[in-house]
Amino acid sequence: MGTAIWWVRRDLRLADNQALTAALAEAGRVIPTVILDPVQLESPYAGPKPRAFFLAALRALDADLRARGSRLVVRQGDPPEALARLVHETAAQAVFAEASVSPYAQDRDARAAEVVPVRWFGGLTVHPPDAVRKADGKPYVVYTPFSRVWKALPPVSPDVLLPAPAQFPPPPDVPSLDLPTEPALPAGLPFSPGEEIAQQRLAAFLDGDDAPIYRYAAERDRMDLDTTSHLSPYLRLGMLSVQQAVAGALEAAARAPNDDALQGAETWLKELIWREFYMAILYNFPHVLEESFRPQYRAIPWVNDEGDFAAWCAGKTGYPVVDAAMRQLAQIGWMHNRARMVVASFLVKDLLVDWRRGERFFMQHLVDGDPPANNGGWQWTAGTGTDAAPYFRILNPVLQGRKHDPQGAYIRRWVPELAAVPDPFIHTPWEMPADVQRAADCLVGRHYPAPRVDHAEARSRALAAFAQSREAAKEKRSEG
Asked: Which of 145, 211, 275, 338 shows a CA-CA span of 20 to 30 A to 231?
């Protein structure tokens, strides 16, 4: 084959890239190409922080390519049309690309395949989203049996991971746009884009007898500690292959020095399998992006109070751990996973705001926002999804704070007006006596808001709303 196009999408890496490796093996020249799709970049789900991170990651990929004698060709517009033009310009014989799972991506890819010869490869997941099935061929909708079958499939070995190419053949001289420099990355973002950084972070998380992965099970829910892998943004954009992450988890488990360490490695592997599970759910049930997976929860009488939603977005609900998490998200485009569950439960159950509004807000701000996992997490917390938490599981924001941020360090970092509040009141500042409020320079209702809702009352209201939706679904079935 003379010329091939490597269509870069969610695989912004050179190592362990099946589509790229195949293109280099079969073509004399390979044109790394990204198409800036206005539908995605200007989507209401695409906020400035994740967009800035994506563009910075593309710049890092371009630098890696240039160091190997190539470059990233940048085009803009409808991807099938842009690909067709590039194929015509370069006389490319084929386009090599990593297959995707979202409804928009599958429609886009089907249209592309109608106008250019495309060859699809795996890589977004360890096992293809249609590979983990029940005996009758139906997809799983519960995580535990899915994970059991997933683990029974051939494991990933470090020996089969594909190396990054040392050099590229010289690229043809074809026009290319400059990558946008705006929006800029937010100040304080704890993630530097690029494959090299991703590899360094993975090694730091996995290597050594005292590797953080071995403490993962015991410490992963602590919001006040820096104990998670911080690899989600790199997996989201494919700066790190999930195959390498899984291989690393399996290798860490095999050399775990004790049972606690083994549990840490196995727990992190479970999180990677959750990612695969939600990919499979979206692939098999694309309607989850539009409505609750469970029909009985499609008629919840949401309150959707705009003031409540605005307070939640701004981190001014009066519940310290909720507000700390939301301010962390607004400032750096990332939030601890336990905090994600807490704030999602608070929005849906305490404020009775439609989970889809929170899901969209997360996507607008998270640099690791991934539609399958984000949707799956929101529906799990709301109790409306596949492998969902029961509808009656409503997280108490005070108890969650006390358990996962016991001294209030996380709260004080992100909610500075509570910095001087004494430990006994850090999770319930409204309980401070007036003299303590004055001493802490934190007058509740003035410097920091009073709680927008009473949690016990809000819990009862949520249970009634969910019961009403179930009854409506039951009546609909009886009528039908």
From this structure: 145
User: What's the whole-number mean pLDDT along residues 358-378?
Assistant: 97
Residue 171 has pLDDT above 90, yes or no: no
Q: Is the separation of the CB atoms in 16 and 108 below 8 Å?
A: no
Task: Tell me the mean pLDDT in the region 215-243.
Answer: 96
When pLDDT is averaged across residues 328-345 and rounded to a whole number, the result is: 96
What span, in angstroms and rounded, lies between the C-alpha atoms of 364 and 371? 11
What one-character-per-residue DSSP string does 369-431 give? --HHHHHHHHHHHHT-SSSPPPTT----HHHHHHHHSTT-HHHHHH-GGGTTS-GGGTT-GGG
Catalytic, 337? Answer yes
Q: Is the pLDDT of residue 480 over 70?
A: no
Q: How far apart are CA 246 and CA 435, in angstroms?
A: 54
155 confidence band (pLDDT: 50, 70, 90): confident
CA–chain centroid gap for 206, Å, is 21
The verdict on whether 378 is a catalytic residue reads yes
Active site residue 302: yes
- What's the confidence (pLDDT) of residue 156? 87
Active-site option among 378, 380, 414, 417:
378
This prediction's pTM: 0.96
Catalytic site residue 271?
Answer: yes
Catalytic residue among 6, 150, 274, 312: 274
